[in-house]
Design brief:
The complex is a heterodimer. Chain A has no helices and eleven strands. The chains are: A mainly beta, B mainly beta.
């Protein structure tokens, strides 16, 4: 079945450590996105990529980094520079920037 | 002030009731999205529309571009409709990508 997978579902990390969240899609979509969701707030865009080997900062990119070496994969690294990393992270993809987005199941990151 | 405002924030209904969730936005848009988020966190895209009305099963979405307003209606509501409903808008050529999201409406449908 086609879809988007994110792993792991729950992730714990110690303060000061970098951590990488995985996002894979087999929908043959060109565009991929990373969002952060905090309680009581709308989703906020961290980074997005419209095509392989290219990506742009979203509204809250500070403390995060991404890569897009393959069409299917768009991993997100939460660095130690991110001051409040505890949140729910959602990955999405779309055929292009004019189409609806399909979302993964999310990764809940907790910094201890 | 958030560019996308949803109302109500919370809504409780009895099974079978007709439900309306509203979304107002303050900028010119090229498309508006309605999304559904289940308790586990997964999000499903329900509608993407730029004018008029769309229907899928018991769900109906309408948009009034002049008034910068959209509504999501659920007919014959059922407990399985309980979820958070999120409105999002896309601007310009990136109607699907750089979205601005509302905070969501928590819907609970009681049997």
């Amino acid at each position: 079945d086609g879809g988007i997978t994110q792993s792991p579902k729950y992730l714990f990390r110690k303060e000061g450590q970098n951590v990488t969240l995985s996002c894979e899609q087999n929908l043959n979509h060109d565009a991929m996105y990373w969002y952060r969701q905090d309680p009581g707030q709308g989703l906020r865009l961290i980074y997005y990529s419209q095509i392989v080997n290219d990506f742009q900062k979203g509204d809250i990119a500070e403390g995060y980094s991404v890569s897009r070496e393959k069409k299917e994969s768009f991993p997100l690294t939460v660095t130690s520079a991110q001051k409040n990393p505890t949140a729910f992270y959602l990955c999405a993809s779309s055929k292009n920037t004019y189409n609806e987005q399909f979302f993964g199941p999310g990764t809940r990151l907790t910094v201890l | 002030k958030n560019e996308v405002e949803q109302s109500p924030q919370n809504l409780t209904a009895q099974e079978g009731e007709f439900i309306t969730i509203n979304c107002s936005y303050s900028v010119g848009i090229s498309a508006l999205h309605w999304l559904q988020q289940h308790p586990g966190g997964g999000i499903v895209s329900l509608f993407m529309l730029s004018s008029g009305k769309k229907k899928h099963g018991r769900l109906i979405a309408t948009i009034n571009i002049q008034e910068k307003h959209s509504s999501l209606h659920i007919t014959a509501s059922h407990p399985r409709d309980s979820a958070v409903y999120i409105c999002a808008v896309g601007v310009g050529e990136t109607s699907g990508s750089r979205l601005t999201f509302g905070e969501g409406t928590q819907l609970t449908v009681n049997p």
